[in-house]
Amino acid sequence: MKIPFNKPYFTGKETEYIRAAVRTQKISGNGFFTKKCQQFLENRYGIKKALLTTSCTDALEMAAILINIQEGDEVIMPSYTFVSTANAFVLRGAKIIFCDSRPDHPGIDETKIEGLITSKTKAIVPVHYAGVACDMSLIMMLARKYELFVIEDAAQAIESYYTFHNGTRKALGSIGHLATFSFHETKNIISGEGGLLAINDEQFIKRAEIIWEKGTNRCAFFRGEIDEYNWIDVGSSYLPSEITAAFLWAQIEKINDIQNKRKDIWHYYEHSLKDTSKGFQTPVIPPFAQNNYHMFYLIFNSHELRQKTILRLKEKGILAIFHYIPLHSSPFFENRYEGQPLFHCDRYSKNILRLPFFNSLKKQDQQKVINALLGDN
Ligand SMILES: *Cc1c(COP(=O)(O)O)cnc(C)c1O
């Protein structure tokens, strides 16, 4: 029996709601299920305006348009992230300034951001890696000081919270001017492909709806606010169909169950694998961050040991994978990179191993993974 790395989870209501969407005879976007999902997410996470998108990548592209990125504007983000974080801004002509990761956690090293800010800097894009918050008090303070926008890449961070230095707690994705989530099948809550743009700065709400609807004011038209709709701005087709939204609603409805399952799996790994002196460490969750159990990873003491472990697990039919070739050393960017070496980013890239983690992972299979790592069989 093989143990995969990920397995999409179905709550059982997905096809029922898709059938309901089909029965309404309106399956294009921005219908009943889209509104239901958006309202739920706004209320639960304290987001001013939520717009479903066809992916987190699309939501990031919308964010880049909304903050008016121009040729040569600089955007600061970690190098240790998924390609879409950077691509969305590259598409609009931005110059990406890559920052190192924290010594204790793969998230952006907040203390290194200020040194990268220039007169051309337009935005900071923190990525909440593994759903674990970046230190948003520091990042928002820098944004105020230098008048920058903050776009949280919260692709992995649904149901995750951050506690500010003054004690207030907020959901990730409700803090930056804009934030983006993913419902790709590898995330906690899924719709196959799917995403969300979260708008927390009200100045962006009106224009976001237009960009979302191919650069037209069709949303206002459907609300009966205008007599005809027109091409009034740039935009694209960023909204998902009602079929996607219906699927997503079946997942959102069961968000507490899903999170409870993931919590048990995460803690069982942590409990079994911490302090084992086997040459790896379990994840550090900084005190200001709350875990959303998006993934479980180990940080090995050496690249060699990580590679050996991948092979050893593979021989036992267990698929564990590494994460992120740093973007600053990717084939696309390598020759453009002008910054300092990014020591911690490179270290995570070489030494992190992500373990099988999905809602239906059985205890006995999880135990097999743990035994393989501890070398007990
Ligand atoms: C998954 C992911 C994305 C992309 O999400 P899609 O919905 O597949 O576009 C972007 N950034 C990060 C950090 C991710 O983990």
What does this structure look like?
By secondary structure, this protein is an alpha/beta fold. The chain folds into two domains: 14-253, Aspartate Aminotransferase, domain 2 (3-Layer(aba) Sandwich); 255-374, Aspartate Aminotransferase, domain 1 (Alpha-Beta Complex). The protein contains twelve helices and twelve strands. The chain has helices spanning 14-23, 32-45, 56-66, 83-90, 136-146, 205-212, 218-222, 242-252, 255-273, 303-315, 343-351, 363-374, and strands spanning 49-53, 74-78, 95-99, 121-124, 149-153, 161-163, 169-171, 178-182, 195-199, 280-281, 297-300, 352-354. The strands form three sheets. It has a seven-stranded mixed beta sheet, sandwiched between helices. It has a three-stranded antiparallel beta sheet with strand order 10-11-12. It has a two-stranded antiparallel ribbon with strand order 6-7. Strand 2, helix 4 (83-90) and strand 3 (95-99) form a beta-alpha-beta unit. Residues 55-57, 81-82, 84-85, 127, 153, 155-156, 182, 184, 195 line the site of pyridoxal-5'-phosphate.
